[in-house]
Amino acid sequence: MSGVGEVGDRYVVGVDYGTLSGRALVVRVRDGAELGTAVHEYRNAVIESALPDGGPSLPPDWALQDPQDYRDVLRHAVPAAVAAAGVDPRDVVGIGIDFTACTILPTLADGTPLCEVPELRQRPHAWVKLWKHHAAQPHADRINALAHERGEPWIGRYGGKISAEWQFAKGLQLLEEDPEVYQRADRFIEAADWIVWQLCGVETRNVCTAGYKGIMQDGKYPSTDYLTALNPDFGDFVTKLDGPLLPLADKAGELTAQAAAWTGLPQGIAVAVGNVDAHVTAASAQALAPGRLVAIMGTSTCHVVNGAQPAEVAGMCGVVEGGISAGAWGYEAGQSGVGDIFGWFVKHAAPAEVASHERLTELAAAQPVGAHGLVALDWWNGNRSLLVNHDLSGMIVGLTLATRPEDVYRALLEATAYGTRMIIEAFVEAGVPVNDLVIAGGLTSNKLLMQIYADVTNRPLSIIGSAQGPALGSAIHAAVAAGEYSSIHEASQAMGRISEAVYRPDPDRVRAYDALYAEYRTLHDHFGRGANDVMLRLRAIRNAAAGSGASTNETALEEVA
């Protein structure tokens, strides 16, 4: 961390809400210097098997969270970060937040989460649905099928498919599996907007999540006629989603007395409009110019890039005007499992003597490209882009008795790079340029992985100059909301940081990876585009064996038979 600085300096706080914890970062306004940080781990983490305190068990593919964990980040991480920075809290002029998305919760009209209503606490659908809650896949399938059948104009803006992770699929699942909780929900709101509501006492919606996760295009949500065709009782869903819509980097309101007591910050400072962890990082990576793709690589990867005009890209997560920054069309794609896959292998599959990322990377780095004879499909957590199917699963082809742990580990690293190349090629083929990549997130420290990405994509890789890209991005947005800069572009240039072209593609390795990528693409299309639905059949058999509901799984088996 940098030293505190000059008399009269002003500071902002960025809070990054991740999958397992929230991080607060104190940043100096004039130059983006990071002065202090603190992390608060969520007490309930990801709720996947059963509700807390002896609550009911959850079916497969559920992922919930407790909103109290989000408030606790404000109570613990923010004051600790300010203390670590050694700044006077009275010199803090704004706070901004970002969130994993789509992470969404049902609330009463005053913002009270339904899981905090005593009689609803044992109802799973009353809790926050985390981004990786994938149990709404059948509902997403129906949303997509009906949209194509009716020729809905918005479906092309999402690459032809709405994800099971997003607002409408999760909302439809809520209605059909627990209609009482659905009726009690006055609001169905992104966690990013909910925590801003907690901070400033004003309900708002940000254009980013409304556009990418909420199917808002050209100022409109899907029509009531379409929604009632999905389910006659779904026609009021937009009234639960709708709220004052604000552009990114705007001021949502001012810090309330209650939130000031939580955070130790001055009452009345600016609270920036909520944002998404990936999209907010573009500002901290100085990557707002069209053609510069930011890949935020952690447990999953989100890819965002600005374009000068709208285009329909098959399998993308969406294109939204102003979705990354004002004055551009922001594109998003993603991979549901990246670091999670590597972590799975180290924890569950690697022998004890090599069961660390450092040792496996060291061994894998000694191999020439292709020496392991393997190709993997990176679908351990389903496929977000381009197939938009979270019922898909992983695969490794080429295993022999000579295969060693480092071979598999390298093949998994490479598989995620191939998935990113699929996304890049889809953008380029649709007329959205991708000239270079900027990498952010926790995986930037793995030099082998970074070089593999440069070689597989045949593009130079720059590295963000901050280990806390989302938190820094939120702080930059807070500086604009507080009036310290006139635009996010100006603030990004002053406060963001990047190391240019740290990794460059090697021509020989590029050629070798071209051959392997061709095999990946063949497998990708064969198992992901309907030629062989074995992965879907296996998942249906698994769910039936786990007792998740005979009728549902018989239907699933029939659908993929």
Automatic annotation (TrEMBL):
UniProt pathway: Carbohydrate degradation; L-arabinose degradation via L-ribulose; D-xylulose 5-phosphate from L-arabinose (bacterial route): step 2/3
The Carbohydrate kinase FGGY N-terminal domain, residue ranges: 11-282
Major enzyme class: transferase
Reactions mediated catalytically: D-ribulose + ATP = D-ribulose 5-phosphate + ADP + H(+); L-ribulose + ATP = L-ribulose 5-phosphate + ADP + H(+)
Assigned EC number: 2.7.1.16
Segments forming domain Carbohydrate kinase FGGY C-terminal: 294-482
Annotated Pfam families: FGGY_C (PF02782), FGGY_N (PF00370)
Stated name of the protein: Ribulokinase
